[in-house]
Specification:
By secondary structure, this protein is α+β, with helices and mostly antiparallel strands. Strands 4-3-2-1-5-8-7-6 form an 8-stranded mixed beta sheet, with helices on both faces.
């Protein structure tokens, strides 16, 4: 994939996640461009109409390398995770409502449908404030640990993956699971997949073509 194609893919991810109501006017996605660099949508960008001109490349210290605007104030989320997790190639931070409802009341994320099992354990970052300092970013990355997602209390969620397609799909799965969990909880106690069922789902569903299928589905909806 060329550099231009990767940039467009990042733009597409932000716009599709906005359409899916996972990213709002303050969310952001990034991809790692080098061990110590990342590409992210700028802080002032209009997410629903993002273009490649709205992307900015920065170092992990926030220094701008390429682009005409400043990164979002919460670039520390991305920088800290890339420092800690060499396996991560893309980070999504949004404010999805169903996932956030869970964190508001202290309801732990539970795998209640098949795709939700791919998130594994989803810890709660207890600080509801903006992650706009290096210390806060480091604390969030520590809470995430080796996981795939973390909920931010009364704030939003962060999802990571090997690349933007994987991160995108997992962000959709997180919110889909949270919505089902929330709605089922209103009726009673939802069924939670057993450890054996979770393992079987992960074996069957952790596949590149299925992540791409989620991407293609959402892209067709936007088009």
């Amino acid at each position: 994939m060329t550099e231009a194609e990767r940039e467009q893919q990042l733009v597409d991810a932000v716009r599709m996640l906005t359409q899916a109501e996972i990213i709002d006017y303050n969310g952001h996605c990034s991809i790692r461009t080098a061990p110590d660099r990342l590409l992210i949508n700028s802080g002032r960008s209009v997410r629903s109409h993002l273009t490649t001109d709205d992307l900015v490349e920065i170092g992990l210290d926030g220094e701008r390398i390429r682009g005409t605007d400043a990164p979002p104030l919460e670039y520390h989320i991305h920088a800290a995770i890339y420092r800690q997790r060499p396996d991560v190639g893309a980070v999504v931070h949004g404010h999805p409502k169903w996932s956030t409802y869970l964190s508001m009341v202290g309801e732990a994320f539970a795998p209640v449908y098949a795709q939700g099992t791919l998130l594994g354990e989803v810890p709660l970052f207890p600080n509801p404030l903006s992650v706009n300092t290096g210390a806060a970013g480091a604390a969030l990355a520590q809470t995430l640990g080796a996981g795939r997602a973390v909920l931010l209390r009364s704030h939003g969620a962060v999802v990571v993956g090997a690349d933007i397609v994987e991160s995108f799909a997992l962000a959709l799965y997180l919110e889909d699971n949270a919505q089902r969990q929330y709605m089922a909880r209103a009726l009673g106690r939802p069924y939670v997949f057993t450890p054996e069922e979770q393992a079987a789902c992960r074996e069957n569903l952790w596949k590149r073509n299925l992540f791409q299928k989620a991407w293609d589905h959402q892209k067709a909806r936007v088009a």
